[in-house]
């Protein structure tokens, strides 16, 4: 029986730094991701692919607001659904092209994710979406559109929105059934479309859920053996940015928790990925990996012949 790996990649992997986000750019980047995913499938893994949508959903929101005088603007959770369709199509086409003749199939699932309406995140927006602006541009947009804006690293200011924790995956039974048929499943795009239990049923709510936390919730819910958190860094580093900076090839979940407590992994950087990995392992997962797309497959190989210069960072249960 093939093992299952849930792979989480950011929206920035599809719209890369320095790019304008044209369809051609995004399609080329999706093809690069498809090669890594198909390599995992060729190695015998069932794969569920969860993607981010920060750049894309922010751009869609701007398009909605700029055209509001012509057609009614749609809420943020609807633009999240739009981005799931857009990016799901890009990734599906790329996977079918890369895996031609080798895949049982690829299915992109429009995925709704339950959140708690009382989550404190709704009172403190922190999730950046959309393009970067100068401080003056950001403040003007905040005043005109009612946005909350904040500085995002050294590249400028961005709109920030609430980012509640995922509680449950509405379509999880369908995802399980597709995995059983050995399909590559694209699910939980953009962290999922956030919904709350209302009257008379589920209702959308404006937020963007962290895709790493949604990937963990999907992985734990389908009893996946591995969670792969794709980033643009080959390995996690301790004392990052200091003279004593050093890469980590493997650490236990207890070591990861200690490093989190010591402030080694900031919330705006590796923190969410390490927290997702810890939660996955504590809920029954076997291995979590944080690395680039190209190193994902070798990093899942637990053999002693793994070369440190070809793998990323593995987080595992207690040694011995």
TrEMBL record:
A Pfam match: AA_kinase
Keyword Repeat: no
Gene Ontology terms for molecular function: carbamate kinase activity
Origin: domain of life: Bacteria
Gene3D superfamilies in UniProt: Acetylglutamate kinase-like (3.40.1160.10)
Ranges of residues in domain Aspartate/glutamate/uridylate kinase: 3-291
Region of interest: Disordered: 296-320
Cited InterPro entries: AceGlu_kinase-like_sf, Asp/Glu/Uridylate_kinase, Carb_kinase
Keyword tags: Kinase, Transferase
Matching PANTHER family: CARBAMATE KINASE, CARBAMATE KINASE-RELATED
Annotated family: Belongs to the carbamate kinase family.
Protein name as it appears in the record: Carbamate kinase
Origin species: Pseudonocardia parietis
